[in-house]
Design goal:
Elements lengths: L35 E6 L7 H15 L3 E4 L17 H12 L2 E7 L7 H8 L15 E7 L7 H12 L3 E2 L4 E3 L16 H20 L3 H4 L3 H7 L9 H6 L6
Parallel strand pairs: 1-2, 1-3, 3-4, 4-5, 4-6
Helix pairs in contact: 1-5
Length: 250
């Protein structure tokens, strides 16, 4: 199964617990069951900084009460390479996306853009498959790592992709410059303003995911899709029809 195993999942050496909220979405909605977050990264290097950032994000999400899964794209075929996309890694990615309520996408910036590995994963997520929608209505946090000075090309592109995939992309984002300087030999992120921003982004993702949870079905209910599916509005049960119906006077 193409999932990454998270080492030291509860060890957060760069987090100052004096200022960390264990349940940042408290009061915004039901936190049980835990919000389900899928994390994707965009490099297959042995020391992949996008993967290391995603792993730090996953640890923080666990601390904030979420359930996380990190997809390993190393066995993913090219789009249209396998007839009917009948490949175990493709099936796994789509099932994980359906499982998720929110997602984290982190890509390196390569030649001023996201990597092919990152785009490959998004390209394997159709807007609709078998009447199901793997990304629509889910929350999304975007992050990037750079080898040089700070840039926002990758996160800007990921925002475009998130909008295209009909996801609710949260306002905050993370861009880590000179990522090779931000991790120790064990692959753990050092305390820094870059780390603090990732904490901010994960806090916000949990909040938005919990906040939107009870409204997810209504927020993705579209006229065009009801029309295509041949599902007319039932005036007897539709709340908007009931609210706007003429009131009978006694």
């Amino acid at each position: 199964m193409p999932l990454r195993t998270l080492t030291d999942p509860d060890h957060l050496p760069a987090l100052d617990h004096r200022y960390a909220l264990e349940r940042p979405a408290l009061g915004l909605g039901a936190g049980d069951p835990p919000p389900r977050i899928l994390l994707l990264y965009g490099s297959l290097r042995e020391r992949s900084y996008s993967r290391l950032c995603v792993e730090e994000a996953a640890r923080l999400l666990r601390f904030f009460g979420a359930e996380t899964r990190i997809f390993d794209p190393s066995t993913l075929p090219l789009p249209d390479q396998v007839v009917g996309d009948d490949h175990p890694a493709v099936h796994e990615l789509r099932e994980l996306s359906m499982w998720s309520e929110g997602q984290v996408w982190c890509s390196p910036e390569r030649h001023g853009q996201i990597t092919g590995i990152m785009k490959l994963q998004v390209d394997h997520l159709p807007l609709s498959i078998g009447g199901m929608r793997p990304t629509q209505g889910r929350t999304l946090a975007v992050m990037q790592v750079s080898a040089g000075s700070q840039s926002f090309n990758s996160v800007n592109t990921l925002r475009v992709l998130g909008r295209w995939m009909r996801m609710v992309t949260i306002p905050n984002q993370s861009s880590v410059a000179k990522a090779f300087e931000e991790f120790d030999d064990a692959g753990r992120m050092k305390p820094s303003s870059y780390y603090d921003r990732i904490v901010d982004v994960m806090e916000e993702l949990v909040r938005f995911t919990i906040l939107l949870r009870p409204h997810a079905a209504q927020l993705v209910d579209r006229y065009s899709e009801r029309k295509d599916a041949g599902v007319p509005i039932d005036a007897a049960t539709d709340l908007s029809s009931i609210a706007t119906a003429p009131q009978k006077l006694d």
